[in-house]
Write a structure and sequence with these properties.
Helix content of chain C: 55-70%
Distance between the termini of chain B: 54 Å
Strand order of the largest sheet of chain C: 1-2
Number of domains of chain C: 1
Number of helices of chain C: 13
Order of helices and strands of chain C: HHHEEHHHHEEHHHHHH
Radius of gyration of chain B: 17 Å
Structural class of chain C: mainly alpha
Mean pLDDT of chain C: 84
Largest sheet of chain B: none
Number of strands of chain B: 0
Radius of gyration of chain C: 21 Å
Helix content of chain B: over 70%
Number of domains of chain B: 1
Low-confidence stretches of chain C: none
Number of helices of chain B: 3
Order of helices and strands of chain B: HHH
Oligomer: heterotrimer
Strand content of chain B: under 5%
Distance between the termini of chain C: 45 Å
Strand content of chain C: under 5%
Structural class of chain B: mainly alpha
Largest sheet of chain C: 2 strands, antiparallel
Shape of chain C: globular
CATH topology of chain B: Helix Hairpins
Largest interface: A-B, 82 and 69 residues
CATH architecture of chain B: Orthogonal Bundle
Mean pLDDT of chain B: 86
Chain lengths: 167, 98, 348
């Protein structure tokens, strides 16, 4: 096994470990920080797959903006002072776990059956020019719609949390 | 050896799904949704590499944009809700079922 | 594989070792410069002109007692300064110090991480710089540090916007993201004597970028996160000796990498200063060295400018700062972008 295979396994274990903490951790700040670590793991996986652009976009947007936003809001909403409200035991977690395992089994079956066609090793790094030729020709409409979406999100998030609106 | 990434991606997707169903804090639920979106990004990138076209990586770009917009709006909703209900837990937000 | 490893280690030693080693010098320049501007003397006891004062400071930091308050969250408390330093070091991997040159039979790229991303990578890793501050303020379990860190983080992410809008305008103007290509395009000259630096093509963008890098590195006039007169000491209040020194180093590293980026984008980067061209004509192999010296000199001037501004201008209030970032700089940046795009379209 070469160095690349060790890095693959390490990155997969790294990302998986921190994702387990995100789901099963108690303190929301620890969950958010573990999510940040798993984003960095994802960035490493994208790099291993040869796509430097996705690595940078992942670090820039996900790790550098979205995760900061989450941690910021967590600090403003300090939930540690409030106790859990009295709830009755619900069937939701058990049903949820069963359903999730069934789904996981289904996906694994599908991947296993087709694993021969999904060989990733043989392709070189994509350069950014090749990637972006399509963005502005074939996917021009989704691109423009994405910019409108971001504009709407900016205006909406300011309007929703505006203090002067509620009376 | 890269097949491990396929299994990682579907494992993370199901883990995120489990987290969305189990977690009690509102923000933790959003975190698990982001985890699901990230795992789907990974799958897109893997399939794009396996087939050989760059379209999958562009799709990742769009998914990231949508995830950013959704996180922003979701968080501002949570802040507004927190101001009204004074609690960050999903069980206390039972306004509709009163 | 062996040769590549040695190459990367050597590049890391220079591109990273020089800034880390120069930090004590910058600290000294700051203290003497502050004294000079404030019409007093500054440290001059320890060695000639107080040149060993930073060494004395380092010894003090090493031997001071590490007080870990009982009320902090230990793991995050210890993680925060390490994280801040790591995030401050990451952008250095994309900063080139000279032109790519031929060493024997192979082409050597003088940046640690060579990809077709260039400035994009530096900007992406600078964006991560807010994490250490956030975690430090939270882990200290103290209302004042939390407030200080939230303000510092909000300031950093707000001014990242102006930074990125200016960068986008620059990408349109230069037509490339690669820093080597950008510096090469600044090598020509207008009318025979004025170099085609970025500052002449994009004066508004240069000003915006300048203000943004002051805000990004939490330096006066934007340093209310560590405002001594307001919040005691802000986010690094509960940190003593070596951990505080790590925060300190991280701030100076941010300053250095952002000034290096500023010089590379707007002021000709590593293009040779007027006198060096004659020496390089005589010894062609020393071109990389003199390019590095030119870059070093320009970055040193920029850092002196940082120190100069710090002791000349009063601090912004928080609402003034946010007002400036969102309501003045961002629309100005967008207008700059539109004008640049029109210019590029009109030029052909």
């Amino acid at each position: 096994m070469g160095l690349n295979e060790y890095i693959d396994i390490f990155l997969a274990v790294f990302t998986g470990f921190f994702s387990l903490i995100v789901v099963f951790g108690r303190n929301p700040v620890v969950c958010a920080l573990s999510l940040l670590m798993s984003f960095i793991g994802f960035a490493g996986i994208f790099f291993q797959l040869g796509s430097v652009f996705l690595t940078t976009i992942q670090v820039l947007v996900y790790a550098g903006a979205i995760a900061i936003l989450f941690i910021f809001v967590l600090m403003l909403i300090n939930t540690s002072h409030y106790k859990y409200s009295q709830t009755k035991k619900s069937i939701n977690p058990v049903l949820g776990t069963i359903f999730t395992f069934i789904l996981l089994g289904g996906f694994t079956l599908v991947i296993n059956n087709n694993i021969d066609y999904l060989n990733v090793d043989r392709l070189p790094t994509t350069s950014m020019k090749v990637l972006f030729v399509d963005l502005f020709n074939k996917y021009l409409l989704p691109f423009e719609l994405a910019t409108v979406l971001i504009l709407v999100a900016i205006v909406a998030s300011v309007v929703i949390s505006n203090k002067r609106g509620e009376k | 050896m890269m097949e491990i990434y396929y299994y990682l991606a579907i494992f993370l997707f199901c883990l995120g799904l489990l987290g969305t169903l189990i977690k009690k804090d509102l923000i933790s639920i959003l975190l698990c949704v982001e985890l699901m979106l990230s795992s789907v990004n990974l799958l897109f990138a893997l399939f794009s590499k396996a087939i050989g076209v760059p379209d999958g990586q562009l799709q990742v770009f769009f998914v990231i944009i949508v995830a950013a917009a959704e996180a922003a709006i979701g968080l501002s909703l949570i802040i507004t809700l927190f101001k009204k209900v004074k609690s960050g837990y999903s069980e206390d937000v039972l306004i509709l079922s009163e | 594989m062996q040769g590549e490893l040695i190459e990367i280690l050597l590049k890391t030693a220079v591109v990273l070792g020089v800034p880390l080693g120069v930090i004590p010098l910058i600290v000294h320049v700051e203290r003497r410069g502050a004294a000079f501007i404030q019409k007093r003397v500054g440290p001059n006891r320890v060695g000639l002109f107080g040149i060993f004062q930073p060494l004395a400071d380092v010894v003090k930091f090493l031997f001071k007692e590490e007080v870990v308050p009982a009320h902090v969250l230990k793991p995050l408390y210890i993680l925060a300064p390490i994280l801040t330093l790591v995030m401050a070091i990451l952008p250095f991997a994309g900063i080139p110090i000279c032109e790519p040159f031929m060493l024997g039979a192979r082409k050597v790229y003088p940046e640690i991480f060579r990809s077709d991303l260039g400035v994009f990578y530096v900007f992406a890793t600078t964006a991560l710089g807010s994490y250490g501050i956030l975690i430090a303020g939270w882990a200290s379990n103290n209302k004042y540090t939390l407030l200080g860190s939230i303000r510092a983080c909000a300031q950093m992410i707000s001014y990242e916007l102006s930074l990125s809008i200016t960068l986008v305008a620059l990408f349109f103007l230069y037509g490339t993201v690669d820093l080597h290509e950008i510096v090469r395009q600044q090598n020509a000259s207008f009318f025979g004597f004025l170099p085609t630096w970025g500052v002449f093509y994009q004066p508004v963008g240069c000003l915006l970028f300048l203000v943004a890098i002051f805000a990004e590195s939490n330096r006066l006039p934007f340093d209310l996160a560590e405002g001594e007169s307001e919040l005691v000491a802000g986010y690094h209040l509960e940190y003593s000796s070596m951990k505080f020194a790590l925060f300190f180093m991280a701030e100076y590293l941010h300053m250095i990498v952002l000034s290096a980026l500023f010089v590379l984008l707007f002021f000709g980067g590593y293009n040779l200063l007027p006198g060096f061209g004659l020496i390089v004509d005589m010894i062609p192999q020393s071109l990389p060295l003199f390019q590095f010296l030119s870059l070093f000199f320009k970055v040193a001037l920029m850092i002196w400018f940082f120190v100069w501004v710090r002791w000349s201008i009063p601090r912004f209030r928080y609402d003034q700062l946010m007002n400036l970032g969102w309501k003045r700089l961002l629309p100005l940046g967008i207008a700059n972008l539109m004008v640049t795009v029109l210019y590029v379209y009109w030029k052909g």
